[in-house]
## 1
Amino acid sequence: MPKEHHQSKSEKVIHYIKNKISEGEWPIGHKIASQRKLAEELGVNRSTVVAALEQLKEDGLLKGVMGKGTIVINNTWTLLAAMPQPETNEKPKPSLLKLNQSDEAEAFEPDTAEDFIQLSKGELAEDIFPVDNMQQVMMRLAGSLGAFGYEEPKGYLPLREAISAYMKRQGKEVSAESILIVSGALQGIQLISAGLLTRGSSLLLEKPSYLFSMHVFQSAGMTLKGLPMDEDGLIPSSIPKHIDPSVPAIVYTIPSFHNPTGVLMTEKRRKELLDLCASMRLPIIEDDIYRELWIDAPPPPPLASLDENGDVLYVGSLSKTLSPGLRIGWIAGAEPVIERLAEIKRQTDYGSSSLSQRVAAEWMASGLYEEHLSFVRQQLKKRRTAAISMLQTHLGDLAEWDIPSGGFLIWLRLKANRRVKDIHAKAYHAGILLNPGSIYTNEAVQAIRLSYGYASMEDFETGIKKLKQIILDSL
Ligand SMILES: Cc1ncc(COP(=O)(O)O)c(C=O)c1O
């Protein structure tokens, strides 16, 4: 029997209103008809309409505003969160998993990477890790430990409060209730995919983009559509032509020190992107995990802080700044959306490690984190200066690149047509790990992603000199 036959009258009203919102007939700020009028229109009792409106307010889709009546307040994430949970028992279709993209890199992922010069690694060098302060934080915590129970579904409250204060400093007012602690940004992306995105919908993202989130989205049955970028970030005007009005779509972006290109999206672009997405009812995932690695000047405010409609789900992490091994990240967004994601997280793993959450809270609430960030920026500045001068000396004739204003990634574009796959293989045999550009996009690219954040600068130079020879030999 069709599902509607089981729907209560109030569910029918809910369905009717959600449809109006999702079809764009009722945009943000739209004042909905009076309860009496709606009841008449839909042929139900007024009390049925009242119950339906209450539910929609709880879901974060409507709000009562003094002197205005009831208005629509969100038409993207909150709407998705108010839909039934997407099927999770359906296995990803093998054809959707384009794992061959990473095979290329993984085939050259050695067991003992220590013997290699790692120009591929997307994390900070061990000598930047704050061992002494970490020991002190751990000792302080050890002195006040109690039993670890399961944490609240959204995570350890003092950590959420510290992140709320941190987000406020970034210009985003978000309460601890609207923050979910996750085991790294990647889990955040997995939860969003599992809980909110529908199979078959389109995922618009920068081309190239971060390898592992592309895999997550593909496994969730999304069709990836690459958006062109320039030195100011992704180009919003390219979005409409990728949209098929009959297929739901969302945008995933890494606006600050993008992986793999290092590009920083300008404030103007950020505004353009937000305006366009608001007008097209496109929800956005903002993956902002490199934000704090600025070298020259703080980046423009996050998209989330410019967003007034709840169109942006913000993903942050401590992996690139403090420690990837802590596995601490967060998602900030509208409360009903966060509640939905928290429930999925509970079903998935009962919450992130209590110990890691306490360590992270201590770093963030004590001011140590901010202090550490200044140190990281100084280190990255030195490393960037050295790396760029080495590149100029050794690869100036063979490649070009933009100087990143933050992060630790350089997108090296080879000037002449060379088989990057062969360069990558030869470099591997010469003891150098590189990430070929092709793993970040489905297009042939003459590019290599280099990291100046991990290897020592002596090793970086040795690696670059060898790379020069390999490129010359591959003519
Ligand atoms: C853009 C981007 N998002 C997410 C991640 C994963 O971060 P986490 O360690 O917090 O899961 C990475 C790691 O390289 C990344 O580059």
## 2
Amino acid sequence: MVRTVPGRTDRVVVVGAGLAGLSAALRLRGAGREVTVVERGSGPGGRAGRIEERGYALDTGPSVFTAPELVADTLAAVGEKLEDRVPMVPLETTYRAQFADGSHLDVHADPDAFAAEVEALCGPGEATALRGYLADLAELYRLQLSTFIDRNLDTPLDLLGPQLVQLARRGGFGRLSRHVERHFTDERLRRLFSFQALYAGVSPYRAIAAYAVIAQLDIGAGVWHPVGGIAAVPRAMAAAAADAGVTLRYDAGVRELELSGSRVTGVLLDDGDRLPADAVVVTVDRPETLVPGFRRLRRPVYSPSCVAVHVGVRSELPGQAHHTISFGEAWREVFAELTRDGRPMTDPSLLVSMPSRTDRSLAPEGGQVLSIVAPTPNLDRHSGGNPDLDWTTLGPRYRDEVLAVMEARGWTGLTGAIEVEHLDTPQTWAAQGMAAGTPFALAHTFGQTGPFRTPTLPRRGPENVVLAGSSVQPGVGVPMVVISGRLAAERITG
Ligand SMILES: Cc1cc2nc3c(=O)[nH]c(=O)nc-3n(C[C@H](O)[C@H](O)[C@H](O)COP(=O)(O)OP(=O)(O)OC[C@H]3O[C@@H](n4cnc5c(N)ncnc54)[C@H](O)[C@@H]3O)c2cc1C
């Protein structure tokens, strides 16, 4: 039996209007609770942020949007349809993978088109391997979703069952790098199916093969573009919540949770207001800063961080894809630099997104918006990061370097065409209170995944405070935090 919050839970306060908080709020409202969301920022979204300037709309958080059905399910909790709030466009080309040898591979959502592309570039043997691998990924994901991801886990014993055995039989606990090497001989395909380990904050040389499933979310099941950009998603969730009767308070930072015995009875805001509460959902990055008695994991390992350069450019940049993974020549070294040596990548691999390629509402006529995300070490030495990197001076230099790499890899004329620009570095995330200066929270090492990651109802701390967001189960990224909101709500509603 999953543990739940005992006693009255009529009035719930949700701290944070990011995707996790909004997901929890919609579920709770759907189950008839009186819900107030308090957010210190001036609008919804949290890490899924938005800057609008001179006609350019820059999404400053996630760029790769997967599993829209999870948001659809969340909206359905209050009787709403996703398509009425945010139309979703499936991308025909999930990614363009650009390699250092000058070749590129378009990853198509249609498996036949993808296999044909692989056959043309890597030969018929690899195309056959691809078909087998994609089928395997889908099955691995199905096994993991029900065991590890889509449920509240209180102890490792909750995992025991036939599905865990099947996962072990399929090699899910070996190394991801070896798993991929066994299936593919072409180095380019090996990279394409292992770079996603970085989304989980681990090197493919250390990650267990079970994380291969992250490639099911993007390459297997496809990537979508929410019309109006990714920020349209939290905005739609907030609007649906408000229409369903949730109270949303912005510019309302929470200072303290008021404890009475083993329960929190009120939420104190920075402006002195007090909101009475029967239960509280906390979605902040570091729950230990707010929840009395909560203990974080011992010796936590955090994911690498990133430098994100967001630009609006007065240039068409013809021929570029919506999402490009631009691989450098270096690979093993990249992970050593990011997760062991605490050094920025010397030969960077970058994720470049140009959503205005699909959605012209995001840029003025003749312009484009781009997000360039370069993974960097975080600021925590124990996690292989580097607290001595001074991003105040390093940030602008690194931005210049990244743009020079982009020009050299085919985005000719990009730098000179920039009209608006925004730069985030590990220092930005640290200033926002995120642990280790990373927006990607605790890494998905084996010891910080599934039942070993902080549960949505911690064992220590007040009995009526539940957690959601990327620091807790199931983990990091839009699909996971949306699920975490549901899991948190279920701790309250039963
Ligand atoms: C550059 C970047 C790229 C990314 N790329 C992807 C991607 O491509 N795909 C993907 O799936 N994911 C991606 N992610 C990760 C994804 O954005 C996050 O995992 C997710 O948005 C986290 O949501 P959350 O609700 O848990 O946290 P948050 O969005 O951080 O929400 C927490 C909220 O709590 C508020 N808050 C904090 N303290 C208080 C307080 N004391 N009082 C009141 N409110 C408070 C914060 O202001 C914030 O709004 C990316 C993130 C970044 C930054």
